[in-house]
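Annex B. Sample input.
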Amino acid sequence: MTGPESEGSQVRRAVCPGSFDPITNGHLDIIARASRLYDEVYVAVMINKSKKGLFEIDERIELIREVTAEYGNVIVESFHGLLVDYCKQRDIPAIVKGLRAVSDFDYELQMAQMNIGLTGVETLFVPTNPTYSFLSSSLVKEVAAWGGDVSHLVPPPVLEALNARLRKD
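Annex B, continued. Sample output.
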């Protein structure tokens, strides 16, 4: 079958990539919004062997699976290499990225242009909820390490994991 009738049966997929060390409420907001727009949303946790994270890849994946379980259409996996290769392997035509500020746009626009030039994968920019416009995983880790309250910045399972990891015995 061709034409508009066949388009309805195609699964719409997108990916939300990142290091998610740890996942924050800002990340979760973008993933939740993407999950309402797409049939399947892949959360691709980037493996960067040259950078030691607070949480191991498997821990990040487990935390993300736990806090996105309610959506039902979110698939969490790790990846290394080029994101566009990850997308090609899974037939994912779109990358969804949250933008916090104009400075994010400058960098992300270059990446988006490179990605579409390499493989035709589109990038969709979603403005971050103003509540989370300042939020980053690095900031959360720094504040938590100094004993600051980050309970309003991360989901409860992440807060628990952060406190366990950073607890000084």
